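hey so i finally got around to running both of the ones u sent me last week. sorry it took forever, my laptop kept dying halfway thru and i had to restart like 3 times lol. anyway pasting them below in the order u listed, first the sequence line then the structure token line for each. didnt double check formatting much so if smth looks off just lmk and ill redo it

first one:
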Amino acid sequence: MSAEAYPNPNRLDDARRALSRFFGYDSFRRGQETVIQAILEGRDVLGIMPTGAGKSICYQVPAVLLPGVTLVVSPLISLMKDQVDALTETGIPATYINSSLSGKETSERLRAIEDGRYKLVYIAPERLESERFLGLISRIEVPLIAVDEAHCVSQWGHDFRPSYMGIVRILPYLERRPIMAAFTATATDVVKEDILERLRLHAPVRLTTGYARDNLALSVVRNADKRDFLVKYIRERPGQSGIVYAATRREVEACQQHLASLGMRVGKYHAGLTEEERSEVQDAFLRDDLQIIVATNAFGMGIDKSNVRYVVHYNMPKNLEAYYQEAGRAGRDGEPGECVLLYSAADTVTQKFFIEQSEADEERKRNDYRLLHDMVEYANTSDCLQRSIVRYFGEEGGEPCGRCGNCTDTRELRDMTEEAKIIFSCVARMRQRFGVTLTAKVLRGANDAKIRQFGFDSLSVYGMMKSTPEKELVRLIHELIADGYLKLTDSQYPVVQLAERVRGVIEGTEKVLSRVEPEAQATKSRSRYGSGRQDGSHEPYDEALFERLRDLRKKLATREGVPPFIIFNDATLRDMCQRMPADERGMREVKGLGEAKYAKYGAEFLRAISDYKREG
């Protein structure tokens, strides 16, 4: 039977009431209402919504209103637990079935599902290979299947999981075809089409709310002393939660040990640790017992912590999709966050090594090299960083964000048109067949055997930029690539070629502008508590009260055995500090406080606010 089995286009009012009752919000965020209405009309959905946009609400609210049990396919155990804990706190019955449960626990939960005691059940895609589970779902009503992190279904995505290919296996076991809703934060056009095909979505409503994250400030720091930069950066943000991503286990170990030796509350996370060790570190971070996690990309999609204020990439990741997914873990609560990429040319070498050592076929490797080149271009662009990412995902760039490191760069632009023309000429005279490094060597006039072999020492451009350090020449060539004047081929050893945009420079209708590389240093935070809303500032609030409420939240979280952000996120505490409610009516106006949470915690927070006022 088709997904039209559950149409009811007149239930948006019910959805708004559910949003208020369970989640404590008066209105939906951008895009949420469109997706929820489509689901309630029985339509399949593909939602591309950035981290922090509220994708979960898009299937959790319909799940409350639809009959039967909604299945949520989720990639990681920790993510399931956090989602279920959060739903339980709001008063929505939910559970998960995964490998962390004992056989007895699994049996008990399966019986409870069949008895109709839950509205949402979270499962890993591997669960769909269980004949016992498939037998269960054939006996119950499943109106909706929500696929979280749907990019995992695509072999062209950055987190391909073969088990996601089996999701459609569930459909023949159900009496009627459920509504299929797929969600992810990032997906190129190729990945989107892959999701549609592999999940067999029927004429879905396709929603992309935009890739721009208005609360994030992106920046790239090139050629810094990474260790010194990181220490200074963290010290300028006392008390703020942050994630530091490194490319290798060895790098993670060294970085974590150095930060710990300086007295910082820092943990490490990588695939070389035991599952128990990883779980302990992650739980300590979620509970705010650790301020910082240093991790490989193994510390990924399961992180639902809302109050991460910054994400630092100690090394450049393999592609922009991975970077934006990881960077997007800052500011999930909508409050300001910072995303810093520490870039050096050595990072490119590391990522190329990973590609070559992989067991992927040649086509996949070529694609991985292309994605890596896009990442290098991002690291070198002089354009607005937010706009560069938005364009990468196929959207119009729009106006500069005004927040990123490039937009806020106060250095004067330098006219590099003549230098650029020399570089273009060199690329052309080398017949567009060689890489960045050799091009820079020719321009420098290097005494290199390969240059002599090809006769490049006789070119008119040979040595024309000998006063410019090779490192600076390489950076400038990469900047010209990033800004679209040059391009690289998709191969292990990419070749520099001229792009169409060169024509305007050669004909004199366009100038090439660049900025001198500054001394790398950590800048003061744009997102210190007390100074940040989505537009970079927020209404004043009492910071002393905020800290007192944070302490109460931590105490209650310890009592309940859940992370503090499950109780209330920072934005909800800040709203309390601004409103300073004196009674139940005032407290119920606080954003993010639904009926169940008021009944459970409202009186204690009201008492804390009252005591604070009295102490005055």
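and the second one:
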Amino acid sequence: MGNTAVHHDDHDHKPQGFLNRWVYTTSHKDIGTLYLVFSLIMFLIGGAMALVIRAELFQPGLQFVHPEFFNQMTTVHALVMIFGAVMPAFVGLANWMIPLMIGAPDMALPRMNNWSFWIMPFAFALLLMTLFMPGGGPAAGWTLYPPLSLQGGYNVAFVIFAIHLMGLSSIMGAINIIATILNLRAPGMTLLKMPIFVWAWLITAFLLIAVMPVLAGAVTMLLTDKFFATSFFNAAGGGDPVLFQHIFWFFGHPEVYIMILPAFGVISEIIPTFARKPLFGYTAMVYATASIAFLSFIVWAHHMFTVGMPLGGELFFMYATMLIAVPTGVKVFNWVSTMWEGSMTFETPMLFALGFVIMFTIGGFSGLMLAIVPADFQYHDTYFVVAHFHYVLVTGAVYSIMAAVYYWLPKWTGRMYDERLGKWHFWLSTIFVNLLFFPQHFLGLAGMPRRIPDYNVAFADFNMLSSIGGFGFGLSQLIFVWILIKCCLLEKGAKAEARSWEGAKGLEWTVPSPAPHHTFTTPPEIRDEDLAHGHVTH
């Protein structure tokens, strides 16, 4: 490897000029960077919308915005965070790291890779434009349930076109990831020697290809109901609005796992590194990931227990949902077992990984509560649900993305980030994110409904705490932005070694930091000591 590293540096010819480097690029590293930067911008925009929501809810009564605009904020906040922040961040990590982890020179379909990124900014331009149109943006919640979603004006067409473009981008990205993993692994990198992050993405990519067309079908039916006088979801014309919920959630539940399986992969890379022990139960982790993906297709109606399903249907979806807790529990126990008696250190990536394990588990427990049909009648459409999915998506998906950025940043930039600021970022985020979402469990149990701009004075105290937490969490993210600016743009920080973390295993740590523009032009030799799971025998 030593010789190839020198060889790479000599031939590290980056494209010259801004257009060639960033707009026409086919390099997996540059496209990965584009995805990550785009997702950070969307995270800040979506966060600003969340702060509008929390400012309005700081006390009872109508303070700052009209109820209609409040509903636009809840709707667009969700669409931006899911399709603009979390998913592109994971695709950016996949683009950057998968070729490095499997010893591939690049992604299998580099031109399509460029195309799948550049569709995204246009999709979000269309979505965000609707907020400035007569009649405003979509205001029916991110789930776009008819008939409410069909009462919008022009925004309906724009939002649906934007969703089609996002779906197109996702499907192209997923095909590329599958093609890369199945065809470009270095000789000797068998499937069961791949890092868990790669496995998680392989499985996620199949989920994406399976469910994005379902979403496309659902929103196309909305489009024809609105503009072409069809009656898919219009009861007056023989349609059924509940049919939309079935189609939507058949996409929507696997979508939740599309946002969490890559997070499981990230955490499974970080914990063994900082515990200085191989991952416990590698093969069990692979099978657990696949089981979660399979089960995610048979639980969709747990989002709609209150629509008047037959009892048999409610029982089926209740038991299937509880079953998903089993492979998820396997993962949590394996992470804990990996740390057990390890020589742990607590750098920022490990702190975010530990925060993930603890707080994601809280979200998992409230999910089990929601799976119980008679209890769900009490929780449904209250702030309890809001608390549940934000524990899964903020302290779950977003925390894992931050952990990944801190973990691989030295490999991307060749510099170590500011560790002290990283720890400040973690602790402030963690204190405020719990202040933000934990009280919402109590609000929901007391009966406060979701998606309302005003509320009973009985809910005032917990809402005030929640809003203080929201502003604290939002401002804490500015530390993260400053850390990135310092490391990436100002190029401050100690030079990073090729193996930036003591205990880090995997092919990505055998190339220099920063990773040269072209890596693995000749396939690397796969040595067991370079692999996090090299000890696994098959």
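quick thing i noticed on the 2nd:
The longest helix spans residues 67-102.
anyway thats it, ttyl
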